[in-house]
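Lab meeting, item 3. Inverse folding demo.
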């Protein structure tokens, strides 16, 4: 498991985005298209991300599919699975209500191409080997996440905001 120290980048990013969300609210993304067909634009977010709580949980993104795993070491049990749409750069910033001026003034080290919004549409839940989809999910389930990704010489890390609840988590890319 890769560890990283908490940097000032994440604290500043979290504070600025929470202020922006509180003051300006989220803007709707009218007239947007589905996720990009070019997976090269999404290469940075593709792969496996482990939450930095030590629980072993995390996300796995492969092309237009995602998994939320109770343990990234076990992809056969205890997971949510479904479709994902990716939005990157200016499109992701628009969905999140983040302006270019706010990005430049508050997060000058973060490049627009390192900003993603994922729209996760789960279609299957497996818990303890049993399909719980019918009892634990409805047709309205959709998770929208803002990913602020920082690449450095040691690893790739992300601060992830749930755009419905405004909760925040940190992840490290492991694969």
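The presenter then showed the designed sequence:
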């Amino acid at each position: 498991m890769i560890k990283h120290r908490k940097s000032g980048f994440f604290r500043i990013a979290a504070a600025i985005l929470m202020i922006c969300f509180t003051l300006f609210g989220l803007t709707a993304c009218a007239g947007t298209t589905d996720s990009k067909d070019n997976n090269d634009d999404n290469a940075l977010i593709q792969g496996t991300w482990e939450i930095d709580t030590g629980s072993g949980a995390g996300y796995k993104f492969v092309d237009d599919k995602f998994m939320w795993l109770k343990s990234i070491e076990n992809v056969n049990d205890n997971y949510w699975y479904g479709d994902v749409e990716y939005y990157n750069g200016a499109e992701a910033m628009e969905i999140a209500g983040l302006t270019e001026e706010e990005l430049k003034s508050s997060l000058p080290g973060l490049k627009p191409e390192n900003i993603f919004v994922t729209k996760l549409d789960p279609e299957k839940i497996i818990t303890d080997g049993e399909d719980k989809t019918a009892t634990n999910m409805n047709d309205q389930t959709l998770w929208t996440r803002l990913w602020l990704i920082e690449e450095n010489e040691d690893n790739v890390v992300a601060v992830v905001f749930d755009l419905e609840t405004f909760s925040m988590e940190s992840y490290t890319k492991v694969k």
